[in-house]
Design a protein that fits this description.
Length: 325
Amino acid sequence: MRLPKVELHLHHEGAAPPAFIKGLAREKSVNLDGVFKADGSYAFRDFVHFLSVYEAATSVLKTPEDYARLTKAVLEESAANDVIYSETFLSPDFCGGSDVGAWREYLHAIKDAADEAERDHGIILRGIVTCIRHFGPEKAKASALCAAETAGDWIVGFGIAGDEMKGKPKDFAYSFDMTREAGLRLTAHAGEWGGAQSVRDAVDDLRVERIGHGVHAINDLALVDKLVENEITLEVCPGSNVNLNVYPSLAEHPIEKLRKRGAKVTVSTDDPPFFHTTMRDEYVNLARTFRWNEDVFAELNDTAARAAFCDEDTRERVLKRLERT
Ligand code: MCF
Ligand code: ZN
């Protein structure tokens, strides 16, 4: 589907095509046994295994220059899917080990590559600094410090991803409070594995304005109504959820029920090559499964543009490009 699209939920390394990771591994003589299947795609059995394969693949990205090359590859693919605005999750744990000086160097390299992609393809990139839940609250604080130090025109948010079954949102409240103070906007992965209560906890204890996934909110309609009332946007990643077996099929995925109940839903790919998806595939599959037409997709993209963490001038530019002729 050739509509202009806004994507709010994309993990930077998770968007790396297998060929890109294999090429870097060859250059640097890194052994990636177990990371790929015989057919060349990423190999993982379940969610916890996915997290370790993700980290193994990411280990070949060693320098700011590697991240610049990754950024170019990722944005070319997004632009080829008609994405006009994208927010990407970046972790200081992977970029310099949460040393603020090193982190700045990675960000400069990524931003230069993003500026070039914006000139060449018109795609706009903004970054969300992300702590990793299974690395624990202390590492999260170091990431939050990096985030607070680099908050600005293109680092616009702070978030948390990773294994939702490790620790409670309130263990990370300090990091969220610090980054809110620094002017960053907040999102948290919740309700992917953790049930409706995990979404409630993220909203109450971290005071986020967006939820990554959030799909299990559907098991508690009073919670969905609270999300509607508080205008909290869900970054829904249907292909990811089906691929990781959160739901057995797209037909059983709650995105349509959430939308019908009035929740602010948006559509993203999460880690596209891991989940054998692209933004175009997501749209085609949703259109086929739920009979969504262009009006529905226009509504989703309008919701996404309004929930984006960018400044108001950028938002206006994006909204203008979404206007249909
Ligand atoms: O959204 C998917 C699945 N649910 C939770 N976490 C992740 C997803 N994709 C990547 N992640 C995590 C993972 O721990 O985010 C981190 C990875 O190490 C990267 S954030 C730049
Ligand atoms: Zn995610």
